[in-house]
Amino acid sequence: MTDDVLLTFNAGSSTLKIGVFEQTGRHARNIGRGKIDFDKTPLTLAYSIRDDRYEKTLTGDNAENFVSVVSETLDHILGHLPGTLLAASHRIVHGGLQFQGPVLLDDANIERVEGLVPLAPLHQPQALRVIRSLRKLRPDIRQTASFDTAFHSSQADIVRRLAIPRALHDDGVRRYGFHGLSYKYIASKLNEIDPTVARGKVIACHLGSGASLCAMENGISCDTSMGFSALDGIPMATRPGWFDPGALLYLMRSGLHQPEKIEDFLYHECGLLGVSGISGDTRVLLQDKRPEAAEAIDLFCLRIAGEIGRMCSTVGGLDAIVFTAGIGENQPEIRARVAQRLQWLGIEIDGDANERNLISINATSSAVKLFVIPTDEEQVIADETIGLIA
User: Is 290 annotated for ligand binding?
Assistant: First the structure.
């Protein structure tokens, strides 16, 4: 076993996911994972190291005592590993115009990440408090950042441009795209599964509570459904996706005045939850027999299919679709409904393969290949870190 251990931190609004890796040459090998759900009481760290699973109650909290949460997490996880901690690596949602690849988090880069908080006000601060906590607890270790927006920096300027005054575009008001770490992993994995298809025109569908699509050619991002923020694109669990700015102006004139209330409305009250009035979880909605639940699912699939159609015009065709993330990997009915709406593209799904969640789920007669590939953002973060510090 190597002496070097690498931890990755993926901080969400209500969870902290941890990846445990050991360095093997110029590669990172996953040996464990952990998760803290801040919505659950008592606060618990659930984690695994190789084949062993553990649950530890934490005394820290999600507020003033957050440093203790990070300290206890390090103690519990590293207590099982004889090696030394090589680095701590972080998923950062927004890299703005400054970051187009992974970086070491020195004082200057941390300050730049902090400067991007207004672009991702719900996500960026969560990662920053983990970074600050680790700096306080372990100032001796290197920290790195991997950015969800970086993978999309390859897109043409015309794709990233919003129809607004040029000065605003030059100032950074443009389409960025997100879930880039997931798409980078999918591009690499598809190249292992089918190198010929991977060199072609591929649309990956990252479908989870947050959801987006990415059109790639030869593994390079050409277009994405999310734009300036993670609110854009297809409907999500509690986010609306495309939202007419005129409708937002109407709501503001009707009483939704404060930016904080608008933000909470757009991030937490819309999407599948808003349409159904029941839940933002597609698993719940698929089991619910009420028409509102069915309508939310139908809208979700309609918008996914519509976005695939739009992206075909960006890349000039379609060779394959990849489904990934929680919904994309585990819900055959969603995949089948999307494929049904795309029959005009010559898409035919293999019902049995789809129900079994196999990697390849297209019928042999399909003009477009269909894949189900589990994503692994933590692996990308760890590999990028090894590349930085090797």
Answer: no
Task: Look at residue 220 and give its three-state secondary structure.
Answer: strand
Q: Looking at residue 319, which CATH number applies to its domain?
A: 3.30.420.40
**Residue 377 annotated as binding site:** yes
Residue 184 in any domain: the answer is no
328 is known to lie in a ligand binding site: yes
The verdict on whether 148 is a catalytic residue reads yes
Tell how far CA 108 is from the center of its chain: 26
pLDDT tens-digit profile of 27-57? 899 999 999 988 888 889 999 999 999 999 9
| DSSP one-letter code for 154 | G
Mean pLDDT of the chain: 94
| Residue of 51, 75, 148, 157 marked catalytic | 148
Structure tokens at 272: 């599948």
Predicted confidence (pLDDT) at residue 1 exceeds the cutoff of 50: no
347 with 286, same domain? yes
Sheet holding 103-104, edge to edge: 52-57, 44-49, 27-37, 15-24, 4-11, 84-92, 142-147, 103-104
pTM, to two decimals: 0.93
Is 175's pLDDT higher than 70? yes
Buried residues in 26-61 as b, exposed as e (16+ CB within 10 A): eebebbbbbebebeeeebebebbbeeeeeebebebe
Give the number of domains in the chain. 2
